[in-house]
Amino acid sequence: MARGGQRNGSRRDRRESGSDRPRRRPDLRAAAAPADVHAASTVLMAALERGDYAAAADALDILAAAEPDNAALHYNRALALRLSGRPRDGFDAARRARALDPANGKAVFEVCACGLECGEPQASLEAGTAYLAVHPGDADAALNSARAALLLDRPEDALALLGQVPANQLSDDHRLCRGEALRDLSRFDEAECAWAHAGSASAGLVLSLRTKGPRGRLALNPARLSP
Fold first, then answer.
1. pLDDT tens digits, residue range 191-211?
2. Which pLDDT does position 12 carry in this prediction?
């Protein structure tokens, strides 16, 4: 599966996701028959074509149950779960994928992205730092990791992470996050300078950051693209 979905914040306060109504889940114990696996593969391809990540996640439940040691399936399931508004389940699936294949960079990225969205900033920061050690300067991973650092009250670390991103890859999201970190360090003039370089569409967010004061966080948008 290709990268999907957080550029403002794989990121700040938690998103509300999903419906309050419990969703029927497939019976995984009865899903390992070859016919069911073939059907799930067909459903998965169709779901991905139309961007239905909830249906894709359900199909991947069946496929992962049939091949529980397949790290790629667990990674894809993690991504589908996050993009369908279930970052906590995605976090568990991403950690399973990473445990099966520690060298799988995509799984490490998803631990970072899902962890940030589901309230696991320490795990998110650890995974993001590990990903950046192999992929230095990755704009998405640096932003996610910086946001996790802010949630852990580590603004200096957030600035260092954002400082890895090449200037031509900086977005308004990076500038807003940098301003947050500088604000938390009481470097208000520098924070204003960072926010001033954000586009006019971010004016409302900047106002919110100013009025929330140190350690006030903006709401999370959908998580960052996955590798």
1. 999 999 998 888 888 888 887
2. 39
User: Which of 189, 163, 183, 190 lies closest to 174 in space, CA to CA?
Assistant: 163
Distance CA 97, CA 74 (A): 5
Residue of 95, 116, 98, 133 lying closest to 7 (CA atoms): 116
The angle that helices 155-162 and 172-184 make with each other, rounded to 10 degrees, is 150
Q: CB-hemisphere CA count at 13 Å for 120?
A: 20
Report CA 103 to chain centroid distance, whole Å: 19
Q: For the chain, report the end-to-end CA distance as a whole number of angstroms.
A: 9
Paired tokens of 216: 């006030």
Give the pair of three-digit tokens for residue 42.
Answer: 């067909």
Higher pLDDT, 221 or 108: 108
The tens digit of pLDDT for each residue in 134-179 reads: 999 999 999 999 999 999 999 999 999 999 999 999 999 999 999 9
Domains of the chain: 35-212 (1.25.40.10)
What the block records as the tokens of 32 is 């390992």
Q: And the tokens for 138?
A: 């990755």
Instruction: Note the residue count of the chain.
Output: 227
CB-based contact 157:132 (threshold 8 Å): no
Residues 6+ apart with CB under 8 A from 202: 172, 175, 176, 195
